[in-house]
């Protein structure tokens, strides 16, 4: 009996340290943030935020009042973030898929190319994005040197870190950092596809595009379901890239919601409002994740049937 209890309880005992760390690192701060969203927590209560008066749902009403300046700014930031996420995730997945398919067959130098492709993912985010910020400088940056001085594609040097071009710069850096992760996951998924399927399809007269459409993409569906969701959540919540690229105040065209919430909390010192925006962002991501998992599970069940 004792041996059976030990055998049953051992897995839970081994999981206990991870559960405690998860509780300390994620759950407790999340609960504290939710409580803060119901308080009028400003700079006057920083030393004792528990003494801040109770605000109820006022912070949420201000955040979702899209006729007022605060709500309009939050809605604008949300749409910018959504467009940025769709573009960055789509391009990252497309580049990762193309690279993984091209690297599937063995050839001389394949290992070296695979290692080179993974460099952006392996670099520390701050070092990588700071390098890009230097490259995007108007007068001394490499981007304008190539586009304007060498290729003569523009009539004058462009501003990349301010104005409307800042959105293009942000998407470029995000895709450069994210596509190697997609490449790594898809490359691993391709290893599980039997080569006999391609050989049989080739003997039946199927071309390259038909093999990709009929064999590769359907076989990678389970990997893509997880990969797209992970990329979406990472990209939508990305704070490091815009913060290092633009600083504390991002241009209007690149005002991602993570930077917007940071400004609402740590620049205007209204932590209650910033916490309410964070909770709304959490709820949105939970809804999107639930709908995505529901749709993909139904498609998987329909395909299995």
Explain the overall architecture.
The protein has 305 residues and is mostly helical. The chain has a single domain (42-304), classed as Orthogonal Bundle (MetI-like fold). The protein is 73% helix and 0% strand. The protein has helices at 2-36, 58-64, 69-102, 110-117, 119-122, 125-135, 142-150, 165-190, 195-203, 208-219, 221-236, 240-246, 257-267, 271-304. The longest helix is centred in the N-terminal third of the chain and has 35 residues, at 2-36. The mean pLDDT is 87.
Specify the number of helices.
14
Which whole number gives the mean pLDDT?
87
CATH homologous superfamily annotation: MetI-like
Give the overall form. globular
Order of helices and strands: HHHHHHHHHHHHHH
Rg estimate, integer Å:
24 Å
Q: What fraction of residues sit in β-strands?
A: under 5%
Instruction: Kindly provide the name of the CATH class.
Output: Mainly Alpha
Under the CATH scheme, the architecture is Orthogonal Bundle
CATH topology: MetI-like fold
Helix content, binned percent: over 70%
Search tags:
305 residues; mainly alpha; MetI-like fold
Quick gist of this model?
73% of the residues lie in helices and 0% in strands. The chain is mainly α and 305 residues long. The chain has a single domain, classed as MetI-like fold, CATH 1.10.3720.10.
Secondary-structure blueprint:
Elements: H1 2-36, H2 58-64, H3 69-102, H4 110-117, H5 119-122, H6 125-135, H7 142-150, H8 165-190, H9 195-203, H10 208-219, H11 221-236, H12 240-246, H13 257-267, H14 271-304
Helix pairs in contact: 2-14, 3-8, 3-11, 6-12, 8-11, 13-14
């Amino acid at each position: 009996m004792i041996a059976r209890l030990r055998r049953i309880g051992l897995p839970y005992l081994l999981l206990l340290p991870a559960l405690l760390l998860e509780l300390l690192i994620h759950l407790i701060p999340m609960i504290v943030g939710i409580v803060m969203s119901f308080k009028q927590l400003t700079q006057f209560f920083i030393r004792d935020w528990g003494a801040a008066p109770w605000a109820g749902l006022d912070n949420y009403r201000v955040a979702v009042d899209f006729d007022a300046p605060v709500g309009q700014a939050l809605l604008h930031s949300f749409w910018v973030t959504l467009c940025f996420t769709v573009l960055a995730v789509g391009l990252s997945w497309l580049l990762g898929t193309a690279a993984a398919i091209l690297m599937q067959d063995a050839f001389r130098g394949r290992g070296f190319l695979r290692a080179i492709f993974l460099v952006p993912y392996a670099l520390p985010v701050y070092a990588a994005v700071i390098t890009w910020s230097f490259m995007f400088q108007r007068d001394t940056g490499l981007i304008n040197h190539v586009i304007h001085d060498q290729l003569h594609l523009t009539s004058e040097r462009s501003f990349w870190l301010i104005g409307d071009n800042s959105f293009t710069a942000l998407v470029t850096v995000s895709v450069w950092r994210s596509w190697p992760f997609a490449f790594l996951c898809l490359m691993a998924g391709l290893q599980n596809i039997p080569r006999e399927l391609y050989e049989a399809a080739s003997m039946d007269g199927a071309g390259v595009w038909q093999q990709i459409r009929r064999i590769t993409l359907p076989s990678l569906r389970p990997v893509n379901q997880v990969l797209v969701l992970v990329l979406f959540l990472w990209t939508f919540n990305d704070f490091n890239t815009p913060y290092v690229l633009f600083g504390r105040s991002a241009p209007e065209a690149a005002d991602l919601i993570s930077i917007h919430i940071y400004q609402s909390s740590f620049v205007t010192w209204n932590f209650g409002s910033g916490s309410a925006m964070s909770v709304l962002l959490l709820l949105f991501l939970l809804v999107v994740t639930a709908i995505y998992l529901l749709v993909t599970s139904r498609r998987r069940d329909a395909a299995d049937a």
